[in-house]
Amino acid sequence: MASTEDTALFRDVFQANPDPIMVHDADTGIVVRANEAAGALLGRPPADIVGMHVGEFSPPGFSTADANALITEAATSGSAQVEWTTRGPDGESRRVEVSLERAVIGDTTRVVAFIHDVTEIRQQERKHTERSKQLQTLMENLPVVVFTLDPDGVFTYSAGKGLDGLGIEPGELEGIPVYEVYKQYPEIIEAVEQALDGEEVRVTQEVNDLVFETWYRPVFDNDGDLTQVVSVARDITDLKRREARIETLSEATNELLYTRTERAVADTVTQIAQHIIDQPLAAMWSYNSDDDTLYPIGATSEAADFAAVETASDLSPMGPESDENRLFHDGSPTVVEDYQALSNPSAPQAPLRTVLFLPLEDYGMLCIGSPTVESFDSHERFLLEILASTGAAALNRVERETRLKSKQAELERSNEALQQFAYIASHDLQEPLRMVSSYVDLLDSEYGDDLDDEAAEYMAFAVDGARRMQEMVNALLRYSRVETNSGDFEETDPEAVLDRTLDALRMRIEEVDATITAESLPPVEADPNQVGQVFQNLLDNAIEYAVEAGIEPRIEVSADRDDDDVVFTVSDNGPGISAADHEEVFDIFHRAGAHDTDGTGIGLAVCQRIVLRHDGRIWVEPSDNGAMFKFTLPAVTEVSGDD
């Protein structure tokens, strides 16, 4: 019977196998047979391989002795394995896995080497290993906490840089139930139980002094059963701190709206600066342009203690020659990394190091200091620069309000003096006017018949002058009493006030056949008697000037609501007022144009004084037909029914 080695079937299978195969002599390791694939692997005909020892084509470092030992192991134990890196005929390095199997052919023991190219497999495995390492490195360095829980709530994995803040090593939690680790945090246990029940949960949680934004995601198998809960927790402590600082800054901005003094602004700004960056050494200086010096006006108590002074005002001024004064005039926020390195500091004895100087436009400077050399991050600087800008705006408002209050006080003193003068003058003039008028009347009655025409005319001039002077004094008295004889503001119906005014003017209206129409007039918050004076003066003027011009008076009264005011309009068909007189017409004793009618020219001045008392305004608007007066009074504030 022929041996298997010599059969045609063996040869065909041996040669057709796509993997390289060699047959070795078990005793010597010599190749006694090689297939075509083996020849292709080594880049030589199979016949040339026969007779070679395996050590001749083994990779460097694998000697003939090593090869013989491996073949002997396979011949003795039945099999052996080795993995080589070999270089093919194309020069490319290939990774092969060699399986040595013992085979008894006839009476002869052989070792068959089955060679399998595992280059692609090893490359994939290497890539997988590299990716696994990269993923592990990424997981260990991500600024988050990543962990998984099994269906019983036991940690199966934990990693991430966020563990550092919790004082936990990666993997330290594995095998421990979450109920044990975080039993003192019921909100965490509640979120975990929701996730274990199959619900995806996103929640913000506090652990110790840290704040985490945590996402719990349940994972299910193909049957819909929970296999694990994957969770990612992101440390948002700094974000929350920044949000709190921004909120503090916003509150400070609102608070600064109500500061009324420079010192109050300084106290508010320094306290807020301390809270924004947790830096207690904050102080503020005000600039005096007269001597080009910055004077301290506010500081935190910590800053005063640090400088060994009792109050902020005891801090050192920053004179013209100081480095701080130069930085103020530069006008830009500046960080001095080491205050001790300045050539001419205003307070060389202060143990300051890093200082942030923030000029407040032309009003002063805010300084934030540290006893150590440290940096201000961009976010802190941004918030402090906003605070400085807000502080400068507050100082600007305080300056304007101070000037306004000073001007207001001056005007009030002037107004009081004017009222006193008008009241006293009008009273003091009453008696001599009455005396002049009485004696002129007595002369006229006693000696009038004895006077010639020229003397009689002089006498008439004297009587008329005394009368006109009496009217002007009475008018001045009415003008001065706008404030002194005023009533309280109350909800007033202008329609009712206008009706009373028309009743008072009824005889004059009927005498000249005047027509006065009125539309709906919204209620106002005003002194009803003074509103009546305004209506009466405007209607009286409109009637008088129309009659003087030979026109039958037609007057219209209307009003419209405009936000918090009611705008009244009184228009007529009279001769009108020239544009040049639109402003002067409200001056006391001023009468626009030439008129034959009697009048003191004080009626519109009284109207203006009354309207101003109500925080309103009065003006003349251009009109092609007659005169059009407008004035405003405060509207009645709407009150809900519940109130």
TrEMBL record:
Gene Ontology molecular function: phosphorelay sensor kinase activity
Ranges for domain PAS: 6-60, 131-175
Record-annotated Histidine kinase domain positions: 424-637
Record InterPro entries: GAF, GAF-like_dom_sf, HATPase_C_sf, HATPase_dom, His_kinase_dom, HisK_dim/P_dom, HisK_dim/P_sf, PAS
Segments traversing the membrane: none
Enzyme class: transferase
Species in which this protein is naturally found: Haloarcula quadrata
CDD domains: HisKA, PAS
Keyword Kinase: yes
Designated name of the protein: histidine kinase
Keywords, sorted A to Z: Kinase, Phosphoprotein, Transferase
Reaction catalyzed: ATP + protein L-histidine = ADP + protein N-phospho-L-histidine
Domain PAC stretches: 197-248
Pfam family, one: HATPase_c
Record-linked PANTHER family: PAC DOMAIN-CONTAINING PROTEIN, PHYTOCHROME-LIKE PROTEIN CPH1
Its EC number(s): 2.7.13.3
Stretches assigned to coiled coil: none
